[in-house]
Amino acid sequence: MSWNGKKRHSATGFVAGSALAGGWYAATSALLSGTPAQTVPVIGAIAIASLVPLIAANVRATPARATVDDSVAQQLRVLKMHTMVNVVDTDNLLVEVNDLLLEATGYTRKELIGKPVAMLYSKDNRTTATEIRDLLRQGKSWQGETTLRNRDGSNCVTQTTVTPLLDANGRWIGSISARTDITSTTKLIARRDTAMTLHELRDDIWIVSEDNLELRYMNLAAKARFGWSTRPKNGQTVRDMAAERGCEDVLDACLRMMDIGDTYMTFSATISGTNFEGSIKWLNKGTVDGRLLIMLHDITERLEQEQLQADFISMVSHELRSPLTSIKGSMGLLLSKAAGQLPPKAEGLLEIAHRNADRLVLIINDILDMEKISSGRLDFELETADLSELVAESLRANATAHQRFGLQIKCHGVDMPTYIETDANRIIQVLTNLMSNAAKFSKPGGTVEISVDKTPENVCVSVRDEGMGIAPEDQHKIFQRFADMANSDRATKGGTGLGLSICKAIVEGLGGTIDFVSKEGRGTTFTFTLPVKTRHSGPENDFERLENVG
Amino acid sequence: MIKLLHVEDDADIREIAKMSLELSGDFVVEQCDCGEQALEKTLDYIPDVFLLDMMMPGMTGRQTLEKLRENPDFANVPAIFMTARAQPNELEELRGIGATEVISKPFDPMSLADQIKAAIA
């Protein structure tokens, strides 16, 4: 039996022999046993097979199946008109397409026949195409959604069934795809989902017209805020909401954005004592459909959480420092012989305890700083400061350590004042940290060099030591918290493991950069640059209450 | 001799501070464990300097100072705060409410006397 063989049933002239060939064999079982959802495209596939001037001569027909009656033939005719169908050979080249597919995709038959079927698929579907092909090779059908790429570049979402064509020997010789266009359904579902999502979102959504700021829509959350169960009354505007409902901040934001002409902006708003973070998106700007989509996110809970966290940190800090004050104070008095001379061994042990109490204090300070950094509340107090003086002050703070290690300190560029606008205390913190690291990792009697350079825009400070250097495999984690370095013996050196990550946050917070170069066995140079004039970044958030300071 | 009134709720810290200051030989130290007691004490005691803990049960150091300042006798008596929270901006704010100096905890017992003398000099 060949694909264009004899008609098997006179009343089903439409169902030519070709329809009863491989396509039939492969597809009817699906048709007859399939679920309704599977059936439609499959019938379509059979229908188109009747049109195919076909390919293989020795495709297996199944005469026993050729008992399709008139009513089935009519259904098939209808489905042919209802469904997009294409046939491809084993090279995935299009062999036939029906009119409906041409109509839907905008191609002519000539443009498609002999071309790879992939040209019909949108890029997103390429993976699916490979997957389908693998199934077909195994003689299996595939069903699912595919997106076709129309001639004009638009997409057409289809519900598709692809069925293999097999020859008399059961060899795969091609496939038939039947597709139903579900683009409009998909769009409707997407639109409905968007509407539902907006409606049920916890944030407040307002949609207002751009010309008179009339409220066109409010979601459930927004209406509930004003105790409304129905949509805003006709003609109600954002101006009315400002006058009657305390929404001045929203009105200001709308007017400001329209004045500037941006299509998106964020703002802060307070409505009846509740704090919001707001955003406005200008949709279809300047058209009759011009709308402002206003979204208000209630931040009350977040502010409360932040306050709780700040209170907790403050409390922990206080609770740790008070006993440490007594511990350190007692040891300090003992070491200063306030209670008389101590045996040398006792004094040595006391020194260890005292040094570690100092270390605990540093850890608490660093943890407080890290908490501020991670919650974005590292504040800077900008003032004009002489960098040379800050270097001198940091050197004084490190004098004991420098003496202990017998270090030679060399300074360059600090003879004259170098004025910059920055946070002096924080820069002292950075310098002290870098100098302390340089001292800790230097060999006894080594040299630490501190250099200050200035350009019209920037200052550059470097701290160089001749210490053991940082192993190349550790260099990438040098600014990480608690980075575990091969040669960083924190217990002996007395570091907290937080210092450099804090330095980085401070320098970057002040608009600068920090970096280092290091050679193992030769030493390390840390360099940071700062702008001569630091710009204030963002509003100051001081959540700490002085009542909590103790 | 400098007459100092120390208000601090932690007995251990009171003892260490008293020992540190008296070791220097320049201070006579009176101590109270809360702001309320300090107000009572100052009915018949006029110190040269107040040393106040910030966070105490009942009146805070700040509230204690505000109450003390209501008495004209103490309007100009220098006040030094001790705080376990010594962030730079907080120190500035404490100075803003009338603190002559802010000493952070833990303090160095060997330099406490010098710090206070320098602050009131």
What descriptive keywords fit this protein?
heterodimer, A: 550 residues, alpha+beta, 5-stranded antiparallel β-sheet, 22% strand, disordered C terminus, B: 121 residues, alpha/beta, Rossmann fold, globular, Bact_response_regulator (chain B)
Structural account:
The complex is a heterodimer of chains A (550) and B (121). Chain A is α+β, with helices and mostly antiparallel strands and 550 residues long. Helix content of chain A is 41%, strand content 22%. Chain A is built from 17 helices and 17 strands. Chain A has a five-stranded antiparallel beta sheet, sandwiched between helices. Chain A has a five-stranded antiparallel beta sheet with strand order 7-6-10-9-8. In chain A, strands 12-14-15-17-16 form a five-stranded mixed beta sheet. In chain A, helix 9 packs antiparallel against helix 10, helix 11 packs antiparallel against helix 12 and helix 13 packs across helix 15. With 121 residues, chain B is an alpha/beta fold. Chain B has one domain: Response regulator (Rossmann fold, 3-Layer(aba) Sandwich). In chain B, 40% of the residues lie in helices and 21% in strands. In chain B, helix 2 runs parallel beside helix 3. The mean pLDDT of chain B is 89. At the A-B interface, helix 11 and helix 12 of A face helix 1 and helix 4 of B. Chain B: It holds the Pfam family Response_reg.
